[in-house]
Amino acid sequence: MQTNHDNSGEPVVVVGAACLDIKCRLRGDVIASTSNSADVRISVGGCARNVAENLARLGYPTTLVTVVCDDDFGQAIVQQTARAGVNTDHIIRVCTHHSPAYVALLSPEGQLITGVDDTEAVEALTPAVITTHRALFQHAPMVVMDANVPVESAKTLLDICAAADVPVVLDPVAYEPALRYRPFIGSFFMVVPNAIEAEALSGVQVTDIAQAITAARRLTAEGVGIAIVTLAEQGLVYATPSSSGHIPAINVEIVDPTGAGDALTATVVYALLHDIPIDEAVRLGVSAATLTLGSPDTVRQDLTLEILYAQLVI
């Protein structure tokens, strides 16, 4: 599974949402119709932004194309992302919407009960805006986009990248956004859905490892180069046109699940761009997700290749 290395040395370009994360971990059972005691943390997040920061922390040159409002939240998103080493020169500042935000309600054990997001500002990533960044995409060794990107804009991006032989990775984000991308899923080099997103993309119900492998194989049969389906405590499965496998999860006390999937995606991208075989790349991805689950931060601040290998699944 080779990637295009003609553009080595150029930054990976990540396109999609950047937002403010508000994460509420309950201290007990939910009592309806009243306020509940919780540990509330506020941090910078957003699927695309998280992927970009993880890549930068691993040491890969990374550029983020996203949208924020020029408000206090937007400035915080840009500043923290830049401090992590991401090129933020191509972040668009518009104020037709407020800066995107995400709220997660977590159980006392750290499991996601429900999440809500407001990423309408990403609608400003129009096909015309994508086209103005044509040279950025054409010179990238790989482009990663999340499914918050409007479909017509994504089609423009895919056309640009296909003409330049640049592979594009899709993070489906959630069930509804994933459904929008099902008709042209075969245009992506790699997709990284969880179980419910894999159902949306493949039409295969996913409740166990065997079904997840079936869904991953269905995606590769439709043209996807690498399909990775994450299964929480059951680990993940992956498929290419010629192979498939299952990687178990690493036992960890969950502090906060937010951003774990983004860490996995970024790490697999990093590994593939360094010619690491897919079976080892996904193991490194599991290590990154595990480290993120055990951290209160959406992106682990001390992420390095060394600590990924230190707990690599054998």
Give the topology, please.
Elements: E1 12-15, E2 19-26, E3 38-45, H1 47-57, E4 62-65, E5 67-68, H2 72-83, E6 92-93, E7 101-106, E8 112-118, H3 127-132, H4 134-138, E9 143-146, H5 151-163, E10 168-171, H6 175-181, E11 190-191, H7 195-202, H8 209-221, E12 226-230, E13 236-239, E14 244-247, H9 260-273, H10 278-293, H11 305-310
Parallel strand pairs: 1-4, 1-9, 2-7, 5-6, 9-10, 10-11, 11-12
Antiparallel strand pairs: 2-3, 7-8, 12-13, 13-14
Helix pairs in contact: 1-9, 6-7, 7-8, 9-10
Structure characterization notes:
With 314 residues, the chain is α/β, with parallel strands linked by helices. The protein has helices at 47-57, 72-83, 127-132, 134-138, 151-163, 175-181, 195-202, 209-221, 260-273, 278-293, 305-310, and strands spanning 12-15, 19-26, 38-45, 62-65, 67-68, 92-93, 101-106, 112-118, 143-146, 168-171, 190-191, 226-230, 236-239, 244-247. The chain has an eight-stranded mixed beta sheet, with helices on both faces. It has a four-stranded mixed beta sheet with strand order 3-2-7-8. Strands 5-6 form a two-stranded parallel sheet. Strand 5 (67-68), helix 2 (72-83) and strand 6 (92-93) form a beta-alpha-beta unit. Helix 1 packs across helix 9, helix 6 (175-181) runs parallel beside helix 7 and helix 7 (195-202) runs parallel beside helix 8 (209-221). The protein is globular, with a radius of gyration of 18 Å. The mean pLDDT is 91.
